[in-house]
Structures are given as structure tokens and as C-alpha cells.
Structure prediction request, 84 residues.
Amino acid sequence: MENGKKTPVRMCVVCRGRFPQKNLYRMQCKNFSLIPFEGKGRSFYICDKCKNSKKVFSVVAYLCKISKEKAKEEIKNFPFFNLH
Ligand SMILES: [Zn+2]
Prediction:
């Protein structure tokens, strides 16, 4: 077994696939809004493929305790380009 540098791997909450952390979007819910991870509190990861999937709405709705409609809005307004 090699003990060298390992790329941190995290799980996408939508598809449960495992990806290098740098390829995932890290976000969190705050006051029923979706925001980029601030460095503290609970966060979760979403992969590039899932951010455009329909399944992401129900997962985010569940995680943020908001309606699916609101989750759609939140994801639409989420600054994905700002992450990584
Ligand atoms: Zn995914």
C-alpha cells in the first residue's frame, strides 16, 4: 500500500457516488437557504452531474427542510461557478 498523498474523496448526497473533493460542490443550508459552505456547520457535497439533475431538488428540499419549489429556486440562484 502506498502511503503518499491521497486525494480526499467525498460522497455526493444525490447520487451517492464518490468523487475527488475538488470536483464536488460543497454547500450548506442556512436559514432555509442554500449557500456555499462557510467553513462551519453541516455541509454536503453535490457532484457536477447532479447539480443539473431533477433529483437534486428533492434532496435539497429534504436537507434544507424547504419545499421542492423553493429548492428549485435556491439551486437556480446558487453560485456554482464560485465554488471549487
Ligand atoms: Zn451526484
The first helix runs from residue 55 to 64.
